[in-house]
């Protein structure tokens, strides 16, 4: 998770620090190392978390929370791809009656909190939680491409409950917004997993796991906010339409004639 171009302020010493990477821990530049905030060892969960992530999610998104998730949870599986392959069926077909939940805001998705309340503990023991990681457009395409396999496996679509009383860009905590999102209510993959585990894990344990994960995320957001405050942004050159440029060129040629 290399943020060198973002964190360097142009000075030689800052650039040198920016190039120092924490290879043995979080994998981030040493200047923004998150190792002190990560759990000492990956947290065990009764929920199996499976994340289908777009091939570009890590390579093109320096703010991806997947590397932090991988170091925070022991029962986690990361699957790169644009759709779920049939080879993933064994991972998503746990022994009955263990349910497989797709955390994705589709029109027919059930509120996860309501689902937990209405489902007996014996029917939701050791669930599998599936998420799609990518841009919203990529996630939509991944969902459509994976829908035939998901339907055949009897996957249950669910969504996180929205707290309408919370102000800000996030539907939970405004200070947890990692980057500018396309619309209100978007949260990072790591936050989505943390909020879901709070509901799915046994009472008491879920809250502890959620807080441990959010502690890492808060530190990451604080580093990013500090950088943005100190960053000098160059003014963007105004883009001009081709028709306008062509019209000016024609007027210039007419004047010369």
From TrEMBL:
One of its GO terms (biological process) is tRNA processing. It catalyses: a uridine in tRNA + S-adenosyl-L-methionine = a 3-[(3S)-3-amino-3-carboxypropyl]uridine in tRNA + S-methyl-5'-thioadenosine + H(+). Its EC number is 2.5.1.25. The keyword S-adenosyl-L-methionine applies. It comes from the Eukaryota. InterPro entries: DTW (IPR005636), DTWD2/TAPT (IPR039262). SMART domains: DTW. This is tRNA-uridine aminocarboxypropyltransferase. The lineage of its organism: Eukaryota, Viridiplantae, Streptophyta, Embryophyta, Tracheophyta.
């Amino acid at each position: 998770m290399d943020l060198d171009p973002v964190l360097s302020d142009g000075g030689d010493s800052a650039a040198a620090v920016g190039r120092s990477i924490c290879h043995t821990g979080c994998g981030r530049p040493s200047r923004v190392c998150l190792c002190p905030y990560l759990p000492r060892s990956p947290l065990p969960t009764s929920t199996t978390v499976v994340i289908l992530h777009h091939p570009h999610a890590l390579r093109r998104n320096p703010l991806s929370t997947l590397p932090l998730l991988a170091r925070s949870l022991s029962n986690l599986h990361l699957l790169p791809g644009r759709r779920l392959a049939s080879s993933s069926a064994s991972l998503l077909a746990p022994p009955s009656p263990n349910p497989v939940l797709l955390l994705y805001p589709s029109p027919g998705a059930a509120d996860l909190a309501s689902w937990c309340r209405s489902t007996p503990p014996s029917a939701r023991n050791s669930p599998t939680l599936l998420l799609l990681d990518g841009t919203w457009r990529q996630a939509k395409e991944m969902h459509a491409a994976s829908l035939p396999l998901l339907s055949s496996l009897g996957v249950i679509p669910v969504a996180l409950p929205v707290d309408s009383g919370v102000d800000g860009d996030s539907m939970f905590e405004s200070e947890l917004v990692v980057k500018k999102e396309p619309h209100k209510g978007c949260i990072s993959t790591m936050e989505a997993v943390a909020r879901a585990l709070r509901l799915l894990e046994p009472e008491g344990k879920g809250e502890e796991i959620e807080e441990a994960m959010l502690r890492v995320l808060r530190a990451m957001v604080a580093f990013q906010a500090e950088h943005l405050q100190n960053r000098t942004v160059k003014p963007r050159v105004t883009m001009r339409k081709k028709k306008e440029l062509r019209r000016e060129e024609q007027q210039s040629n007419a004047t010369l004639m």
